[in-house]
Design brief:
The protein has 369 residues and is α+β, with helices and mostly antiparallel strands. It is built from eight helices and 20 strands. It binds adenosine-5'-triphosphate (ATP).
Length: 369
């Protein structure tokens, strides 16, 4: 088990004094023993570079990478005792599954006898339910089976850290879901500190203990899935996490005594001051409604705004539906239950409780509420 720390880590590719690319900027991340960290963000935000610096495949330009308090910046990748799993599985095509699994153990000077290695291979194969495949070559395996072997190769040595770089990107949607549950279970079982790169927010939300949301090489938020969803630090995190996307509208905020008055195009409502932690110094705000927080006004009364919409599309998703509609505020997406009598062209009145409304400073994009 390893306590992983990134302390003021910056990575510049090329010449920093001229036209270097700042891939990662002043990153601080702390991952306690046994925790599962997910690095989440859009393409090019610096996730892979961060992972490679943890693994020793890339040197930080500034800052420290520490394992259990010891700086490892100068420790070579092969001496860091980390196991990496990549999206392309990286199996040896000419070796059987058994040989692929045992390869790392045979190569190391670990004092293990051939019988001990065989025993460990069997144990890991059982854990991953791939015992029947031990004599197969990678070409005879499905994508999911290959990824299981790749995982097996990573856990067989009981490394200090697991590093995953989009390990499920090449699998179909259904298999991705199964495999992510398996990775989650496996990591909890073996309790090895892990860092996992993905641009898929749903994957991040289901698998992470902690999520580091990155944008343009900079950390936007480090928090539990619940925190990044419910208390996003800024507009970027709020828009990147959660599906369907948050509805956003321009508005203004004014002090109305016990409450703040929010004025949007043709719609005004009050937000009790008790619900707002931040000091309000701005007038222009962005008002956010998560689709999940919008209710049909006929089913639930709230103290919040109520507005009419014209339904365009109803997309059933299990027991709920995503309803796309047009309103005086602009286009609105809502996720609602009791949707069977909602038809395109219907009028649907929506409402949201004031405690569910998000407010962002229109200029800094910081969360106000
Ligand atoms: P993706 O999800 O597309 O893999 P990412 O978030 O993992 O993206 P990185 O691969 O870490 O992003 O890249 C971060 C930035 O650094 C990008 O602008 C990329 O072009 C740049 N970069 C990455 N590797 C190098 C390199 N070896 N040389 C120069 N620039 C690089």
């Amino acid at each position: 088990m390893t306590h992983l720390e990134l302390d003021s880590v910056t990575k510049v590719f090329g010449d920093p004094s001229t036209d270097g690319v700042v891939a990662v900027k002043d990153l601080h991340i702390d991952v306690p023993d046994g925790e599962f960290l997910v690095l989440l963000g859009p393409s090019g935000c610096g996730k892979t570079t961060t992972l490679r610096m943890i693994g020793g495949l890339e040197d930080p330009t500034e800052g420290e990478v520490r394992f259990d308090g010891t700086v490892v910046n100068d420790v070579k990748a092969r001496n860091r005792d980390v196991a990496m799993v990549f999206q392309d599985f990286a199996l040896y095509p000419h070796m059987t599954v058994r040989e692929n699994l045992g390869f790392g153990l045979r190569r190391e000077d670990n004092g293990m006898s051939a019988d001990e290695i065989k025993g460990r291979v069997t144990e890991v194969a059982e854990m991953l339910e791939i015992e029947e495949l031990l004599n197969n070559k990678p070409a005879q395996l499905s994508g999911g089976q290959k990824q299981r072997v790749a995982l097996g190769r990573a856990i067989i040595r009981e490394p200090r850290l697991f590093l995953f770089d989009e390990p499920l990107a090449n699998l179909d949607a259904k298999l991705r879901k199964t495999m992510r549950t398996e990775i989650d279970e496996l990591q909890s079982k073996v309790g090895i500190t892990s860092a996992y790169v993905t641009h898929n927010q749903e994957e991040a939300m289901t698998i992470a203990d902690k999520i580091a949301v990155l944008n343009d090489g900079q950390l936007q938020q480090l928090g539990s899935p619940d925190q990044v969803f419910n208390e996003p630090t800024n507009l970027f995190v709020a828009q990147f996490v959660g599906s369907p996307d948050m509805n956003l509208f321009d508005g203004t905020i004014t002090d109305g005594g016990d409450a703040y008055r929010i004025d949007m195009d043709l719609l005004s409502f009050d937000v009790p001051k008790a619900l707002v932690d931040a000091e309000i110094t701005t007038e222009d705000v962005l008002v956010g409604f998560r689709p999940q927080d919008l209710y049909q006004a006929r089913n639930r009364a709230t103290d919040g705004p109520e507005f009419d919409t014209d339904v365009r599309v109803v997309e059933p998703v299990g027991t709920e539906a995503i309803v796309h509609s047009t309103s005086l505020l602009g286009d609105v997406t809502a996720k609602v239950g009791n949707f069977h009598d909602i038809e395109p062209t219907d009028q649907l009145s929506l409402t949201i409780a004031p405690e569910h409304v998000y407010l962002f400073d229109a200029e800094s994009e910081a969360l106000l509420k």
